[in-house]
Amino acid sequence: MNNLIGSAPAPSFDAPLEMLLACHGRIQAQCATLKKIMLHLPRQGCDTQAQQAATNIVRYFDTAGVYHHQDEEKDLFPLLLATNTTEANILIYRLLDEHQVMEAAWQTLRPFLNEVIEGKVIAFNNLAADHFIAVYDRHIAVENAQLLPLAKQLLTAEQLAQLGHNMAARRMN
Question: CATH number of the domain at 16-172, out of 3.40.1710.10, 3.40.1410.10, 3.40.630.30, 1.20.120.520?
């Protein structure tokens, strides 16, 4: 199935590493929308457009964003740790620490987005939004450059198939 006419097919759970990469693209798109909200609010206020954008961001990070971290923490990271390679171990523990920082950044930002959704913004916290975007940008860069290539190198076809199966099952619940 194509996203747009003439575009490449969207990855499926049969290609879980490509699916994780595509999710990174969707996260970056949500962060780009967050940047637009930051520019929009001082000019247009908390209008319907800002409220809808904030709603979409909250919905994404409360659902797909959670699934993405679970895909990594419950399935991908344990598979890589089981390879008992120094490179994988160091990388996974770094990424787990970053996940905690990212969750804290989300918990700081989310109430401000809720104010936008409710049309009650007094002062949007641009520092919290900038921090959230920055931690995600850095994290995604590391995962795209190091984690996904390492997983491709170390994991077997059977492990990747199980990863894809688990990712799909998580979204069925």
Answer: 1.20.120.520
